[in-house]
Q: What sequence folds into this?
């Protein structure tokens, strides 16, 4: 009887043909297959880096910028070609809040609000944080 000859049952042959699995009969064939498979994976990773996930911040994460001024704060949130802007100006007698939204450079919304009292720094911070988290929650799928 020949030792290298693989003998399979009819069920095993059916399994091999249904899964397109070719049995590797000798160690040499198995090594050749493994080395060529490893080489294909390595070359595929080197020449197609766009398949791998990019390092760093996600492309869908909005860019948030908050600046403090002497009389208030302003916030800008950008995602792609969309931009949201808020400006809060606090005077001695009132607080003015401006909100704008632009898409591809065109202004789509422009809201102004006047509060007839000066707001504290904590209130201004809360409004800016609520504004940013509200826009982020709208952007999440």
A:
């Amino acid at each position: 009887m020949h030792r290298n000859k693989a003998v399979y049952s009819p069920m095993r042959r059916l399994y091999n043909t249904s899964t397109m699995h070719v049995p590797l009969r000798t160690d040499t064939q198995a090594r050749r297959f493994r080395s060529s498979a490893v080489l294909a994976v390595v070359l595929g990773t080197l020449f197609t880096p766009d398949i791998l996930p990019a390092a760093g911040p996600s492309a869908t994460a909005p860019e948030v910028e908050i600046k403090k001024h002497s009389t208030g704060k302003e916030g800008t949130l950008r995602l792609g070609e969309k931009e949201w802007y808020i400006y809060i100006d606090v005077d001695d007698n009132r607080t003015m809040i401006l909100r704008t939204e632009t898409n591809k450079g065109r202004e789509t919304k422009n809201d102004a609000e006047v509060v007839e009292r000066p707001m504290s720094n904590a209130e201004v911070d809360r409004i800016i944080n609520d504004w940013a988290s509200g826009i982020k929650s709208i952007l999440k799928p």
